[in-house]
Write a structure and sequence with these properties.
Elements: E1 2-3, E2 11-16, E3 19-24, H1 31-37, H2 39-42, H3 47-67, E4 72-78, H4 83-94, E5 99-108, E6 111-118, E7 126-134, E8 140-148, H5 152-163, E9 167-168
Antiparallel strand pairs: 1-9, 2-3, 3-4, 4-8, 5-6, 6-7, 7-8
């Protein structure tokens, strides 16, 4: 298994479809805050019209945030794929559709091969950093940090800090990481 620090004030880790994902805690919109921000626009409307206008603003905000590219960390364990060979394989596959920003490098936090790819150079262009960690059983933990270029200094920096804490653990080790 593995252990990794997750900033639980801003992010949540979930297990989905055989992998783990770290994503931002969804924004909850406060009706009273929107009422305060939109006071001038709501002035003169009936209470029913005000509530409808607030509902419309909340929907507008939800739609906007849903339209942004994903900002997440994905962690998957890949059996029977040696980590350096798997890094090369994935890099070769991705080079057909992505611009390779950084060739495969060795890093020591975590001990991994890594490379970066970009889908363009606009604010909303997807950007990914791939990490390949030896799982100690002839397999690989493949970690992908996904965000758009605009989020590089926010989510990108936070994701890199969390991934630096990634550690392989055994069943005996897990009790110290619980909680």
């Amino acid at each position: 298994g593995f252990a990794m620090y997750v900033d639980t004030d801003s992010y949540v880790m979930t297990e989905e479809n055989g992998g783990y994902y770290v994503r931002q805690i969804p924004i909850e919109f406060d009706r009273e805050e929107i009422r305060r921000q939109q006071a001038a626009l709501l002035e003169g409307l009936s209470p029913e019209e005000q509530e409808a206008a607030i509902d419309a603003r909340i929907q507008e905000l939800e739609d906007f945030y849903a339209s942004l590219p994903a900002n997440e960390i994905e962690i998957r364990e890949v059996a029977d794929k040696e980590f350096s060979a798997y890094a090369e394989e994935v890099s070769n596959q991705m080079s057909a559709n992505w611009e390779i920003i950084e060739d495969i490098n060795w890093i020591d936090k975590p001990l991994a091969y890594t490379f970066s790819v970009s889908g363009g150079n606009t604010w909303d262009s997807p950007y990914e950093v791939h990490y390949f960690v030896d799982n100690g059983k002839q397999g690989t933990f493949h970690i992908v940090a996904r965000y758009n270029l605009e989020a590089a200094e926010g989510h990108g920096t936070r994701f890199a800090s969390m991934i630096q804490t990634f550690e392989i653990v055994t069943d005996e080790d897990t009790s110290q990481y619980t909680g």
